[in-house]
Amino acid sequence: MNLAEGVQLVSFIILTVMMLGAALAVVLSPNIVYSAFLLGGVFSAMAGLYLLLNASFVAAAQILVYVGAINVLILFAIMLVNKREDFAPVKYAWTRKIVTAAVCGGLFLLLGTTIITTPWAIDSTAAAGDEAIYILGEHFFTDFLLPFELVSVLLLMALIGAIVLARRDIIPDSSNVVGQDDLKLPEKPRELVSAGADGESS
Amino acid sequence: MDVANLASQLNVGVILPEGIVILTLLTVLIVDIIRGRAANAITPYIAIGGLSASLAALCLQWNIANPVSFLGSFNGDPLSVVFRAIVVLSAAFTILMSIRYVERSGTSLGEFITILLTATLGGMFLCGASELVMIFVALETLSISSYLLTGYMKRDSRSNEAALKYLLIGASSSALFLYGVSLLYGLSGGETQLGAIAANLTAGGQSLGLIMALVFVIAGVAFKISAVPFHQWTPDVYEGSPTPVVAFLSVGSKTAGFALAVRLLVVVFPLLADEWHFVFTVLAMLSMILGNMVALAQTSMKRLLAYSSIGQAGFVMIGLIAGTEVGYASMIFYLLVYLFMNLGGFACVILFSLRTGTDQISEYSGLYHKDPLITLCLSLCLLSLGGIPPLAGFFGKIYLFWAGWQAGLYPLVLVGLVTSVISIYYYIRVVKMMVVREPQEMSDAVKNYPKVSWDAPGLKPLQVGLVISVVATTLVGVASNPVFTLAIDSVENSPALSASLAKAKEKSAIAVLPKDSPSLEVTKVASAKL
Questions:
Q1: What DSSP line would sit under B359-393, residue for residue?
Q2: Are the beta carbons of A119 and B207 separated by less than 8 Å?
Q3: Which of A50, A68, B212, B404 could form a disulfide with B409 if both were Cys (CB 3.0 to 4.6 A apart)?
Q4: Packing angle between helix B495-512 and helix B519-529, nearest 10 degrees?
Q5: pLDDT tens for each residue of A136-146
Q6: E strand or H helix at B69
Q7: Which of A161, A194, A199 sits opposite B115 (nearest CB)?
Q8: The model's pTM
């Protein structure tokens, strides 16, 4: 084993221990804020593993998207619903943990066996390394062009949907806008929204 | 690869119908932004016009010479054309029904139509996608817009609950599906085209990894078509979400799910054909039994239709399991018929709830005396769903059961027959409630029934949709032959299915011959030579 392989092995072990430890702590920690920060640790460790696999672009994307966006979003969500409340300890809570551990262990064994026994068709060509980003771009504009373009429609729709869900409708204080017989649908809001006022408010 | 060369390779013309839908979607969005609330008078008609144009474009795409486009991402063979047409039709009918409903509930119509059109687009792409990335993106487009539609009535807590449930269960099933798909990618040595994956998998032979991939893929597909035991979300989501959305989910989204099932399972898993046929047999039996049994006990019309749609999905699966030409064709035929009868039923439910504000089955009693039109239409649609002879549903079921029987699926067909008799009971219960009751037995809602008028804005389109679907439900039954020929044509002309069809034919040829006949050897030799 030469020096490079040794460094690789040691960093693999460090990253794995970091990832597994952080992942267990995310699940077991009683404090949700600690869990959220530790989740960031899991994502970073995973980015390190990608680096070891010679996939630097994926590693950068992992840090940007997961740590930078998703994890921060989770923290925001936690901070916005920061309601201190002491929950009464559930009786026999340990049985749940044991059952969960058994299920997870079973799943791990199953997937582990699958991975070991399956004859994978391993690609023998060398990893692209830093060329990967060019290859990705080429794929986006040749054989993955259609999904790439469809994602733009998906994002547009997600944007519209988020606005629809999040916008605050202006409720007129007089209910005489609405005829009395109008209030019969199951989904009927308590007051009718005037759509004209909507646009001005946002 | 220069630009002109690339453009000719992409073969963009195949996705013209989808392009029209995208243009319509953008037009609706822009018109809605510019004109504000006044746009509500035109946006639904723009959307319906766009969907009709897309349908016309689909008709022109029938049996085109080169259906593969975008370097294999999308396949526009006749099979996908039929499924896409069903999705487009269901979206158009849903818009017809939703105009009045959405306006009355005080939410904005423009965004509703935009999201519905995106869901349609996702469903259409899913029907023709023949590449893993494309399948997943299309699936997510369909799913995420469905979650948004489910939670569209954001001030109704039931709608919120339904959306959250649908989102959580849907996200986990998407994750399972993605895991299965990633296993396929690994097993085939980095291929994403379905055909290439199938070719590479055959070289690798059967393995535990392949079985795991199959299990995960089936979990994702079964969630979309809400087969038991992946149906847990269906009743709650159907009860909570706006009724037009339920109509779309029960027809459009389910059709896309079946198209995905046909393409993915038949093309990629010929190695495990016996295994997935077995799993789907179990799923179909459970869906038919549980869906129809639980529907007996329902008191809400929406929940009744939810459980009945689970049962109906079980019937459709018979055609998929049969795996023969007639099997696939009868599946397409039944989906088409189901489109009309189910949407007709939902149109009546929407109309009734618009006029009385309730979905309870007991409130329908004595409706005949106040509103004969709804009573007639709802009765026809429900009887057709149950499979009463002159109506379309009967012929759909006959074709399905006949295909199943020919393929030797005797237990499955028997379960189907018994459960469809059970289903007739609960459909007829509603019809009896509406028709037979004397005037003094009327429910309060019917007693206070408003005077029937179609003048209110948005009711005319609803009426048009209702009448078209009821007429189709009645006529398709009588004139079922041309429609069925069309379905057979679409199956025959789709090269994706030819391998599985050949296999099924070979199997049935061996099964038909007497056991001790010497010609058995001859056929085997002949088929080996072929």
A1: -BGGGGTTHHHH-HHHHHHHHHHHHHHHT-TTSHH
A2: yes
A3: B404
A4: 160
A5: 999 998 889 99
A6: strand B68-69
A7: A161
A8: 0.89
